[in-house]
Amino acid sequence: PAVIAEKADEALSRIETSRAVTETLAGDAALEPTDLAAVAAELTARVETTHGVAVTTDLPDRALVPANAGLRSVVDNLVENAVEHNDADDPRVHVSVAVERATVGLAVSDNGPGLPDGSEGPFDTARPKTGRGGLALVQTLVESYDGTVRVEANEPRGTRVVVVLPRGESEG
């Protein structure tokens, strides 16, 4: 019974996320304060369970950003890519969320193969957002939330993807 309830909740969450992604892509998204820290905590725990890869986190108690349930696709795609494309003998992924005065940053780092030499990365704004699957979706969603995304080298080995979104709250 508990497993059935858990799977039903997961299915409903995926449906809600899909609806939000569709609305965002169509330009009809209703954005509301969404807790990026809670989304990251939930999705990293699920990736650890399903893939058996150690995912460490550095998350604040709360990090509100103007988004919708499509934010789950952003985090899910970045964490899944970091796990699936990691060829290290001891694969590691680290997810952090940092709240600044006007922005909230999400960083997903791994110790995988990194980007090929000379690559400008999957988020090159000069190239059309096609043929890159989940990463194109990440870029489109982040931009619709008035954010930016970039890829950096994660020395000595790996990739670090950084998403910066406007802060969805103000504290005195």
Q: How is this structure best described in words?
A:
This protein is of the alpha+beta class and 172 residues long. The protein is 38% helix and 25% strand. Strands 2-4-5-7-6 form a five-stranded mixed β-sheet. The N and C termini lie far apart (45 Å).
Would you kindly provide a brief summary of this structure?
The chain has 172 residues and is an alpha+beta fold. The chain has four helices and seven strands; from the N terminus they run H-E-H-E-E-H-E-E-H-E-E.
List the main descriptive attributes of the protein structure presented here.
38% helix, 5-stranded mixed sheet, 4 helices, two-stranded antiparallel ribbon, alpha+beta, 172 residues, 7 strands
Number of strands: 7
Question: What is the arithmetic mean of pLDDT?
Answer: 79
Shape: globular
Give the structural class: alpha+beta
How far do the termini sit from each other?
A: 45 Å
Main sheet properties: 5 strands, mixed
**N-to-C order of helices and strands:** HEHEEHEEHEE
Strand order of the largest sheet: 2-4-5-7-6
Number of helices: 4
Which strand-content bin applies to the residues?
25-35%
Q: What radius of gyration results from the CA coordinates? A: 16 Å
Fraction of residues in helices? 25-40%
Describe the secondary structure blueprint for this structure.
Layout: H1 2-25, E1 32-35, H2 36-51, E2 54-58, E3 64-67, H3 71-84, E4 92-99, E5 103-110, H4 133-144, E6 148-153, E7 159-166
Parallel strand pairs: 2-4
Antiparallel strand pairs: 1-3, 4-5, 5-7, 6-7
